[in-house]
Each structure stands twice: as C-alpha cells, then as structure tokens.
Write a structure and sequence with these properties.
Blueprint (H helix, E strand, L loop, with lengths): L4 H8 L9 E9 H6 L1 H12 L11 E6 L20 E10 L6 H22 L17 H6 L3 H11 L16 E4 L4 E4 L2
Antiparallel strand pairs: 1-3, 2-3, 4-5
Helix pairs in contact: 3-4
Length: 191
C-alpha cells in the first residue's frame, strides 16, 4: 500500500517527458461497427502501430478513450457530428516525427498518417466520425468526417458571421473556399 495517491502514482508510472513532436489522427468507432467488425478494427490497430512494416523505425501509437456519449442523451441543437452519439471509443493515432525533419520527410509521414493509418481506421468503422481537435485535418472528406450532416448549417453560419473569410483554420467550415500555395506561405481565395 501507498500512504498517498501521489506515492502510488509515482510507483506505478514511469517518468514522463513534456512534449513531443508527432502528427495526430484518429477515429471514433461506432457501436455497431465494434460489434460486427471486431477483427477489422484489430487489423486497423495493427496498421496504426506498424504503418510501414518494412521500416521498423517508423511506428505509430494509439491513445484510446472509451465512452458512450450519446446514450440516453436527447439530441441537442449543436454542431456535434450525429455519429458521435453512437460512438463506443475514440482512438487517437499518433506518428512521431523528429524535430528538424526535412520537409520531404514530414510530407511522407503526413501521407502515411492520412492514407495508411487513418485510412485503416476509417475502413474499419465506416459509420464512425472524428473529432476536429484531435484528428488529421488533411484527411479526405473532412467535412463529413468532422461535421457530418451538420456541415451545411455550419458553413452557412460561417458565411453569416465571416462573409469575407477573414478567419482561416485548416479543415473548418468554409476553408474549401481557400487554397494554401507556395509551400504554405500564402493563402488565396479559390476562383
């Protein structure tokens, strides 16, 4: 036994470092997909952990959140993706990228996260969704992945309160009207 919770914590956990450099993605798994595609989800987890098997120095890791956010909760008038209410868990996929990596290496790792790791998660739970604050903003079909059927309402609100598109953030309502050019140094309105 430990005299205090803090003493127990120190005994149970390794020393933690502050901060790391990694790309993050992830996916929320729908109840039905978990019940009917358990093997597919396990294979997706394996892909996240070893996204490039021929390169053992390239590895991913996962942070999992178990929850059941919508059970018994009435539908609210919010921007929450409708699939969120049927989610069993949310897995954050992370891919370490060393500080000082070349732009080409970073682009390769972003491609690996988006098109291998996150793609495996999306395919394993086709009824799922993801959470914009802890996901890959470069995933295909981000409007549906982050916002689902709420997206048109959010884009209309964006047009009402920011008609000139002054406020920009990747993968948020209305950003498809803009294009980042010249290696990410300029933002231009799409014609």
């Amino acid at each position: 036994t430990s005299p205090t919770f803090y003493d127990l914590y120190v005994d149970l956990f390794e020393a933690e470092t502050a901060g790391s450099s990694a790309l993050t993605g992830g996916w929320m798994f729908n109840h039905q997909d978990v019940a009917t595609n358990n093997d597919g989800i396990i294979e997706a987890f394996k892909t996240v952990l070893s996204p490039r098997p021929e390169s053992p120095d390239v590895f991913g890791f996962m942070i999992g959140h178990l929850f059941n956010p919508g059970y018994g909760a009435p539908k609210s008038d919010s921007a929450t993706h409708p699939s969120w209410r049927n989610a069993t868990n949310f897995v954050i996929a992370a891919l370490p990228v060393p500080v000082g990596s070349s732009p080409a290496y970073k682009a390769d790792m972003q491609n690996l996260l988006t098109n291998t790791m996150d793609e495996a998660l999306r395919k394993a739970s086709t009824s799922g969704c993801t959470y914009v604050n802890e996901a890959d903003p470069y995933q295909p079909n981000w409007q549906s992945a982050f916002w689902g059927s709420e997206y048109p309402k959010l884009k209309a609100l964006r047009g009402k309160w920011d008609p000139r598109g002054v406020f920009y953030a990747v993968a948020t309502p209305g950003t498809e009207d803009w294009e980042v050019i010249e290696d990410g140094t300029r933002l231009c309105r799409r014609s």
